[in-house]
Amino acid sequence: MNDKYILAIESSCDETSCAIVKNGSEDIATVISSQIDIHKNFGGVVPEVASRHHIKNITMVIEECLNKANMTMSDIDAIGVTYGPGLIGSLLVGVEAAKTLAWVYHKPLIPVNHIAGHIYANNLVKKMEYPLIALVVSGGHTELIYMDKEYSFKKLGSTLDDAVGECYDKVARVAGIPYPGGPVIDKMAQNGKDEYDLPLPLDDDSYNFSFSGLKSAVINLAHNCEQRNEELNKENLATSFQNVVVESITKKTMKALKDNNVKRLVVAGGVSANSGIRNALKELCEKENIDLTVPDLKYCTDNATMIGAAAYFAYKNGITSNLSLSADSGIDLV
Ligand code: KG4
Ligand code: ZN
């Protein structure tokens, strides 16, 4: 294939983003307009507010991205877009923008699953090789995926209830930290002591996860402290909580690698920015001789660059869509 420049759009949650990516591996230009400051006031993402802001921002973000790359639409080979999973109103804005560009400029349209995007953020670090296991940890997902070849996904397990990022944000709320509190809990965890006894969730033979019980244990602990007029040491709580999360995630991930005899691990999603998870996996993978890839921090949270990377491989594998493409909020990656 000749060099391919894909213009990609991501709007599945609260980031409006456009990127131009060369050959699925090179970030030519990326623009991200984040709405975090707006949603902070509500303690979480408000879907209706998010879609309104996507509508307001999308054309400016696309234009800014082309300007940043010093390119016009004639330099673009195809349009990639996140069509799910995510918030339906938010997804619709990106999908309609992508369809409009594809139609007006006669470009192929490539539908990209948001999770595939997170996984392919790793191809921006180095060329992904197969077979591999992908650990996807974000605000909406906690999944272990087996990939035997390019753009082929088999789900091994996932969370039965809350996603790990969601759990981080709720624990942060208990500690009085504004949304999204995950990164703050991570920082606090690095300074505290493992003093609180929290249960290790779903310690079984499956590849599934569960975080709602852990979340409830933290909430109960906070209530009990309050009733007893005892002061809750938030840093120590963050450390104990993070240790349990790290143990749960690393245990299942290492098991998936071992059971499937796979020697490559890629990590993806907003929570892959977590220092506890990064350090623990680095140590374990070194010990087990497993090739570990983690995206740069800027590609861990939602961005269109990862969608452009995934779109290249989707396109290479014959995945395109006509203009009847619809957003699908609950679509599965498989
Ligand atoms: O992938 P992402 O941007 O959005 C989804 O697709 O869900 O992930 C956002 C999530 C939030 O829950 C945020 O608190 C969490 O990732 N997060 C972290 C860290 N950085 C972001 N959680 C724990 N530790 C971090 N360092
Ligand atoms: Zn995401």
Descriptive report:
It is a single chain. The chain has ten helices and ten strands. By secondary structure, the chain is of the alpha/beta class. It has a five-stranded mixed beta sheet, with helices on both faces. Helix 4 packs across helix 10 (304-316), helix 5 packs across helix 6 and helix 6 (182-189) crosses helix 8. The longest helix is centred in the last third of the chain and has 26 residues, at 234-259. The chain is globular. Bound molecules: 5'-O-[(R)-(carboxyoxy)(hydroxy)phosphoryl]adenosine and zinc ion (ZN). 5'-O-[(R)-(carboxyoxy)(hydroxy)phosphoryl]adenosine binds at residues 13, 138-140, 165, 168-169, 180, 182-183, 186, 269-271, 273-274, 301-302.
Descriptors for this entry?
single chain; 334 residues; alpha/beta; five-stranded mixed β-sheet; 10 strands
Shape: globular
Radius of gyration: 20 Å
Helix content: 40-55%
Unreliable segments (pLDDT under 50, ≥5 consecutive)?
none
How many helices does DSSP assign? Answer: 10
Strand portion: 15-25%
In the sheet with the most strands, the strands line up as: 3-2-1-4-5
Biggest β-sheet: count, sense, barrel?
Answer: 5 strands, mixed
